[in-house]
């Protein structure tokens, strides 16, 4: 089973590299699934560390599970990334929700506040990690909303600082200080190296064994689908 999963992931990466090139900035509309993997690949290239995709974390407050698109773990911080693959003109309402007009749908579509959702996901993930015996340093987890769709448009530039619009996304450079410099805060300032390494080992172990989406479906150009099932999720 695991051999099939690994082979499928390797084939998928080779497929994307062959047809779309090595740059993970989208130049065309794609599926939500492909957009998440594209963002994950680019974040890993830009900031190093480890990227975890498709976590399915239990929420003790609601008794349900939170789907988390991406978790990026660097030596200085970890971040929950929500990928909003939105096309059309986007405006923000007074309650924080987003209205999308002119996309694939003929009518306006209202989406719940993705910033609040990402914040809640980060809180749920922190609680889950602490329940598994690892104390999180204050300010270690942050959250961002990334919009990688090239057909994203906005009426006003009034998006919260946690939102990375498409224009900002394509300008990010693989440098320690860039548009995300305020995001990388170094929660371990003044800490011992041994303690940092031990913490990161524990954190990466927890994230690597955390529940994932029950099924990944990657639809290729030839209409073949690869289904990846995580046992025990």
Automatic annotation (TrEMBL):
Pfam families: NERD (PF08378). It comes from the Eukaryota. Residues 31-148 form the NERD domain. This is NERD domain-containing protein. It comes from Gossypium raimondii.
């Amino acid at each position: 089973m695991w051999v099939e999963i690994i082979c499928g992931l390797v084939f998928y990466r080779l497929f994307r590299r062959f047809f779309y090139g090595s740059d993970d900035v989208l130049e065309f509309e794609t599926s939500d699934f492909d957009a998440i993997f594209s963002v994950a690949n680019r974040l890993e290239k830009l900031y190093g560390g480890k990227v975890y995709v498709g976590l399915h974390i239990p929420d003790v407050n609601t008794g349900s599970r939170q789907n988390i698109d991406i978790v990026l773990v660097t030596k200085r911080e970890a971040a929950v990334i929500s990928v909003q693959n939105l096309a059309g003109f986007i405006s923000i309402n007074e309650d924080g929700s987003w209205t999308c007009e002119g996309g694939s749908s003929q009518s306006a579509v209202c989406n719940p506040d993705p910033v609040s959702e990402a914040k809640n996901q980060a809180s749920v993930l922190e609680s889950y990690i602490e329940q598994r015996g690892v104390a999180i340093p204050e300010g270690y987890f942050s959250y961002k909303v990334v919009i990688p769709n090239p057909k994203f448009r906005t009426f006003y530039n009034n998006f919260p600082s946690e939102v990375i619009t498409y224009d900002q996304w394509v300008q990010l450079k693989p440098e320690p200080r860039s548009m995300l410099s305020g995001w990388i805060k170094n929660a371990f300032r003044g800490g011992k190296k041994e303690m940092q390494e031990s913490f990161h080992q524990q954190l990466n172990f927890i994230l690597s064994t955390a529940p994932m989406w029950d099924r990944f479906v990657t639809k290729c150009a030839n209409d073949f689908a690869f289904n990846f099932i995580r046992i025990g999720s």
